[in-house]
Structures are given as C-alpha cells and as structure tokens.
Design a protein that fits this description.
Elements (H helix, E strand, L loop, with lengths): L1 E5 L7 E2 L2 E2 L1 H19 L3 E4 L11 H17 L3 E4 L6 H4 L3 H5 L3 E4 L9 E3 L2 E6 L4 H8 L6 H14 L7 E7 L1 E2 L18 E2 L9 E5 L5 E2 L4 E3 L16 E6 L7 E6 L6 E6 L1 H10 L5 E6 L8 H5 L6 E6 H8 L4 H18 L7 H18 L1
Parallel strand pairs: 1-4, 4-5, 5-6, 8-9, 9-12, 10-11, 12-14, 17-18, 18-19
Antiparallel strand pairs: 1-15, 2-3, 7-8, 13-14, 15-16
Helix pairs in contact: 1-2, 5-6, 10-11
C-alpha cells in the first residue's frame, strides 16, 4: 500500500506580519494535488495542525474547504487529526458526513481507538492530547509522563489489531531526540512531553506531525515536516511531502517529494552595494532576511533595498551590532560617531564627507557631552 503523508499546514500563518495564504494555496493546488494525481496513493495522512490557531481566519477556512472539495472529487481516502494549534470542535464540524465520502477527521480521544479500515490497513488516528486528558480517558491516574500515556494508548490500540493487516498510526506529538525549529511555539513543543520512539514500533508506519523539520523518529516513524518554511531559521531546510510504501513484511520505503514553493525563505548577507546591484540586475521575490557586512553604517537600507527585494523581511547590520557592543570605549565611540556622521551625509544628504566637516561635528559633540556632564 502507498500513502502520502503531510502535516503542519498551519493555514492562515503569518511570517513577519505577512499573510502566507497564497503561498499555502500554491502548495495545495500546485504541489499536493498534482502529487496525488501522479502517484495515486491509497490514502492521504494529515498529521495535525491544519490551522495556525484555534479560531482560524476566514480565508484559511475557505482554503481548507477548497482542499476538502478537491480531495473528495478525486475519491482519495484521507485521515486528518487535530494538532495543538487546531480548535478540535471547529474542525470536527461535518466529520460524520465527510467520513461517508472517505475523509476522516479525528479530533476526540474516544475515536482514536476505533481503527479506520482502508484496504488491508488499519489506521489509528490519535489527535494531540495533554497527559491529563489521556489519564482521565483511560481512567488510570498512575500514568506519569508522555511515554507512559503513549504506551498505554498504543496497548489499547494493539488490542484492536487484526491479524494479517498493516497497522498505521497518525499522531501529533513530540518524539524524544527530534530536532525543533524556531517556528514551533515554545509553549507547545514538547507540550505532550517527550515520547520514546520505541512506542511506535508496533506499527508498520507512524505518520507524525508537530515538528517542522522532516526527519525520522525511530525505525518506523517519521515527521513529514511543514510544507512551507515558517521561520527564517528554516531557510536551510528542504521541504517535502512523504510518500511511504508498505511492502509485505518489510520496512516502510520512503520517498521524499520535493515542494516547489511560491516564494522561498532565505538569508542573504554581504555589502550593501553588492546586494543592491544584485537586486537591480535580477529582482528577488523570495522572503528574504538580509545581514549587511559593511564596515560603515548604511542609512535606510530597507527602503533602498525593497524595490528589488519586495518581500524583504528584515535588515540587520553587523556594523551597528559591533557598535552597540563597543560603545563603552571612548575611542570606539568617537570613531563610531564619525562613521555615523559620514554615512548620514553620504546616504541621506547625497554629499561627499569632508575631513573638516567631520572634525567640526566631533568638536560639537564633545562640547555637547561636556555640557551634559
């Protein structure tokens, strides 16, 4: 059997205050659906965090509705669980009706232990949970820690395993030893605690969500990662969809399907003049964070770069960072004041700094500082 595994869509996400809804639409309709048409999986597994917040934005809801319509028209069975960013009760609206058309939305613990039968596979869909919720549901106050709660849940699922079937878990949790990213809220990463990866070994495959970097989690579990880069620290990551094939009696075979985003997210660094010239020669429409390496201050760099980098996220200057850390030294302070003055004349006034002007400026500064003292 063959499944397409994705997770952490975060529909409605903002990046530095910019809406990514069109980038997300591009992923769904120019990457995900064409992959389904090409590879014809037996099912699609979406491992939580459909939305970016519990009360989703209207445009995010509309985009999810369009996705459901597209999946239904393709008659591709889909299993989708709630993540920690989702409002479970809200995404569960119409779940029973959608299940008749092969789209299974699981948001409650009591539904996690009833396997979804798909061909010769049993799929157990376990939504995000807090440990206290699992203890209360299982009626066992002795369970302490995420590992114990997950093991108890898996044991309950194993009691429903049918011989000769493949067994698949879809879950949203933090697996011990996994790598995190800045775009995952510190309030939620590990919120269910660290789950030992051997908890997943009873399953032929465990499709995980919660962490945004695609990575394995033990022998038979894997994070699909987020389909888009949701923080600049993810610039180095290669986003993908996970196509998993389950041969008889063998380990899952993984193929990573690369994602071509509408806009990439990346870091650029170099001298202001070089970056300005590069942008003028070939405007860059990706989401960009820029670090300036000039030995002198550059004034209004964002305003001057943005015509060529229209999706510029931020600009930082190594010079200003160094100046901030050395401001206590009198010699360094004098040198920095001269550099700022010269840069202001050059970049703002459009004039070439003269030695006499700089000397007069420094004399005035010393006079003012003496009066303040």
């Amino acid at each position: 059997m063959k499944f397409l595994h994705i997770a952490d869509l975060h529909l409605g996400r903002l990046l530095y205050g910019r809406s990514l809804i069109e980038d997300q639409r591009h992923f769904l309709f120019e990457n995900l659906l064409p992959a389904i048409d090409q590879h014809k999986p037996d099912g699609v597994l979406i491992a939580g965090d459909l939305y970016d917040r519990p009360i989703a934005a209207v445009e995010a809801i509309a985009l999810f509705d369009a996705l459901l319509d597209a999946l239904s028209s393709r008659s591709v069975p889909t299993v989708l669980i709630a993540g920690n960013h989702d409002g479970p009760e809200r995404i569960a609206v119409g779940a029973k009706l959608l299940a008749r058309f092969g789209i299974h939305i699981v948001t409650a613990l009591e539904d996690a232990f009833e396997p979804i039968e798909l061909g010769d596979a049993q799929i157990f869909a376990l939504p995000y949970f807090e440990n206290a919720q699992m203890r209360a549901f299982l009626g066992d106050d002795t369970l302490r820690g995420a590992g114990a709660c997950m093991r108890a849940a898996v044991e309950k699922m194993q009691a429903r395993f049918a011989p000769g079937k493949r067994h698949i878990l879809v879950a949203h949790c933090f697996a011990a030893g996994a790598a995190t990213s800045d775009s995952e809220s510190s309030l939620f990463v590990g919120g269910a605690g660290d789950v030992p990866t051997d908890c997943f070994t009873p399953f032929d495959y465990a499709a995980l969500g919660h962490l945004h970097a695609a990575q394995p989690a033990g022998q038979t579990a894997r994070y699909a990662g987020s389909p888009l880069k949701y923080a600049v620290d993810e610039a180095h990551q290669k986003k993908s969809m996970t196509l998993v094939t389950l041969p008889d009696g063998e380990k899952p075979q993984i193929e990573l399907l690369p994602i071509a985003p509408l806009h990439d997210v990346k870091r650029l660094q170099g001298n202001f003049g070089d970056l300005l010239a590069a942008g003028a020669a070939a405007p860059d429409h990706d989401y960009v964070e820029i670090l300036l390496e000039d030995d002198a201050p550059i004034f209004c760099p964002a305003d001057r770069l943005r015509p060529y980098y229209p999706n510029l996220l931020s600009v930082r200057s190594e010079w200003f960072l160094r100046a901030g850390t050395s401001a206590s030294a009198a010699a360094a302070q004098t040198r920095d004041q001269a550099a700022v003055f010269d840069g202001f004349l050059r970049d703002i006034c459009g004039e070439t700094p003269h030695e006499g002007d700089t000397a007069l400026f420094l004399e005035m500064m010393r006079e003012l500082e003496g009066k303040e003292a």
